[in-house]
What does this fold into?
Amino acid sequence: MRIVAFIVSLVITVVLIYALNKKWGSIPPLGKFLSPQHGFWQNAEPENADFNANLKFSNLKGKVNVYFDERLVPHVFADNDEDLYFVQGYIHAKFRLWQMEFQTMYAAGRLSEVLGNNPLLIKVDRETRRSGMVYAAQNELEMIEKNPLSKKFADAYTAGVNAYIETLSKADLPVEYKLLDYKPEKWNNLKIALLVKQMSRTLSGNVDDLELTIEKKFIPFSEFNILYPQVPDSLEPIVPKGTPFDPPVLAIKPANADSVYFGKVDSMMIATEIIKPDKNNGSNNWVVAGSKTKSGAPIVCNDPHLDLTFPSIWYEMQLNSPTCNVYGASLPGAPCIVIGFNDSIAWGVTNAQRDVKDFYEIKFKDDSKKQYWFNGQWADAKIHIDTIKVRGAADIFDTVAYTVFGPVMYDKSFPDSINEAKAIACRWTAHDPSNEGLALYYLNRAANYNEYVEAIKHFECPAQNFVFGAKNGDIAIWQQGKFPLRWYGQGLMIMPGEDTSYQWQGFIPQEQNPHAFNPAQGYLVSANQRPADSTYPYFIPGNYINARAIAINKFLRGMQNITPQDMMKLQNNTFNVTAEDARPLLLKYVNEQALNAEEKKYLEKFKNWNLMADANSVGQTIYYTWWNLLAENIWNDELSKIKPAAVLPNQQTMLEALLRDSALKYIDNINTPEKETLYDIITSSFKKASEKLLNYEKLGKLEWTKYKQPRIYHLLRTSLMPFSRAIPVGGNGDIINATTTTHGPSWRMIVQLTQNTEAYAVYPGGQSGNPGSRFYDNFVDDWVNGKYYSLWMMKRSETGDARVKWTMNFGNE
Amino acid sequence: MKLFISVILIALLAFVSGLFLPWWGIAIAAFLVCLLIPMRVGKAFLSGFLGVFVLWALLAFWMDMKNQHLLSKKIAELFPLGGSSILLILVTAFIGALVGGFAGMTGSFLRGRRQF
It folds into this structure.
């Protein structure tokens, strides 16, 4: 009797432990997770946490001292470069391990391995791998390992990350590992390369080739120039107008392009991309020369716009060794400083937005995908079988063919089993071997313009606008990257992939990349606009955004005696420059007689709007709602029948088209017998907008930030809402303060290059990735309010300074 | 008195186990104490339950105080417990206590068999 009871009781206990040790759906293993000595309580960092430590690692050659200031920014002083990057890796891992690893998992198509069996995630993983992300990272890794210098510092960084992982007990794991119940794996140099490719995907992955190929069936290519013009009327390019350009290397258009490319329409199904990076992945940077500043020294400003996440994409630090002394934003998971300044120069980056990704239609011999038709014969494809591990389910095997163009992303097996689906290969500069880390390594140490130019040559993808200022007074900007040489129209849509004739014929010579040095105007601006005007002798399609550059130029032109404080105000400026041009047009064509009292009330507010998209602006909400409805009215009748989705012309294009031609043919709604005029649709859009606005007003959402509801999400998005935070800010993607709903200035930096550098920065996050730390989000309020922190480029002699709160000493045995 | 001693012993042993063993070390602690100290089955369950409850509640409470409820509020929203730190501490302690209770009961049954 008693033995039965014992066994029953034992079984209950064991089953209970088993059940509480296991993850059930999204519920973490409760026993493990709640145990105060093992689970999440361990991540509840004491308010007065002590970050002091003395650590010994046999890998170190000398001593490294890390001084943390009151914002938990580390100032790292190392005896040599290898030790410097070892400790950078260690510190990154200590404060940001989960995010570093998770991003590389995403980049490698391994989300299902961590997040479980979800059909959408499996698709995302398959597309990631099929787009050649891992192949690209391996090519980058080969370049890193071939160069003794970059191998040395990548190895040191990786060793530092692993040194932290090895000392990590289960109780110390970041809370995300505990919630999802998995463990970090060892770090390696491939993961560094994967992070570079993740940036490439985010910043150079957004193209509309597949959508435009579908659209071509409905709208002739000749009309694309109205819908998607290459050079907008209002363009204020990065390189000032009038800059002379060298004669180009020409690409030859294939003789049959009109019939088999531009004019070709077939009925086959075409896949569209599942992962489409945010079109607003842009940024602002500018530099003003001493001639325009109060101090007489250049001021460099930069605010990269990315998804605003917790933990933040950036980690602030100072790196000091005998070869460098540099401060700025680093990317957890990769060595060096990405955006920052040293004792001689400052630099910042914005995205080039150039199209460096094309697609080719492949003709396979049969479903084995082993051979494809190329140059008049069957060529062998390299078959790669990807194994996708799925948590809690069987592995998935995916066969991907690699052609001379690149990996075949879409075929009969992906994304759907549509029988007549085209096989489409992807050609992308991210696939090509390059070594971006080397650019950062040299840039961190550059002392003048020439060294900056030499350094950035190593940066090929994702192409960036590197703005530059130096203490000797020089200012400059280079759009740097590797750009295919294209004939007009090449690569806007899927190209024939049966021979060499549609392949890229080379690359634009690096020295011909758009650049400017000490221009007469005394300042340079890049904000994702087209880099040069129509006199630039190359065809350079891209996903450009023009409004912010127009606004920044407008303000800088009129400014003199500029101070860093002026630049802070400018980075936070919410002036809607597009609305400035759009408002007279809207007011001219709206028929006030047709409006009722409620509608007139909104129109009055719109008329009196100060054109600022501030957090509590009502005018901006009215403008935004009205303009979007007008856009729908103009384009939807023609474009909405195009499935799965057409490419909506951008707002600048629409505005310019309407300003140029008030009888634009798209104004008429083709679905009604009568012919609508601009008066009709502007008025009807306003009436419809008023209806919506009335609704927002009832919900208390008429103020811009309440309408927009911007928020910083955790990287795991809506699954971890309590780890996110609402941010009551204004701005928008086309406004200098480019905060959208989930996206915005991820790091604001201002550096005045006076004898003693005066630098300021802030980012919407905190130095710790731990949601249980007071350093998780402690910069957010100041970021929201447009405040900055004065950056301390610490000297070795200042170890006794009151700003030093904690010290970590690293040495060998 | 016996109950009081075993509760304290279980809490202490469970704490020590937490330094070296995975979280289910609490079960071993409760099992061993109830194996060594003769108690009725009900009391054994209670001492295992209370021993772990007290330990986990105190530890969680202490950590939560030092953290100024920063993390517990977020986790209590996630679970969802309405963002209540106290509720989360009680749930924490209850989950551990349940394991402790059954483990203690098991130990007591095993001891009982030996007595025959």
